[in-house]
Amino acid sequence: MTVQARHSTGPCPLIFLTLILLAAGLAQIIRPPNSSQNFVSEHVDFPKTRPHSGQTYCNYMMWCLSQKIHMCKLTHTFIHAPTSRLWAICTSRGGRYNQYNECDSFTAYLLTTCLVHSPLPTELCLQGNTPDPQDPRGL
Hints:
The chain is of the alpha+beta class. The protein has a domain at 36-125: CATH 3.10.130.10. The chain is built from five helices and four strands, in the order αααβαβββα. The protein has a two-stranded antiparallel ribbon. The protein has a two-stranded antiparallel ribbon with strand order 2-3. The protein is flat. GO terms for molecular function: nucleic acid binding; RNA nuclease activity. It is found in: Secreted. This is Ribonuclease A-domain domain-containing protein. Belongs to the pancreatic ribonuclease family. Residues 32-138 form the Ribonuclease A-domain domain.
């Protein structure tokens, strides 16, 4: 019995191989974000940050947030508690789930909610310099 090897000629196998390799590479690069890590990174500020001289807490923290998430938010809440205490909220000891599948805490935590009253254009919000403490618009 003779087995004859067949190989395809032309661009189709090469294009197919390229697409497979591209898909495999993208699958490793594009991963869904870890929502709990994102939450901690964006919302937990413990111990509470002291802004640079002349800056308000909200101006500084909203600017830092815009650098981290690459977008400008008009409102944001920061939680001033250790992460270890926050994890207990979603257990029967520390809280309960509400109708939106969110955890309601039995314990009160110190929070700061920042509101930007007069936002700067996006390109200024995302610039690499820290905010001007003299600018009354904040971020």
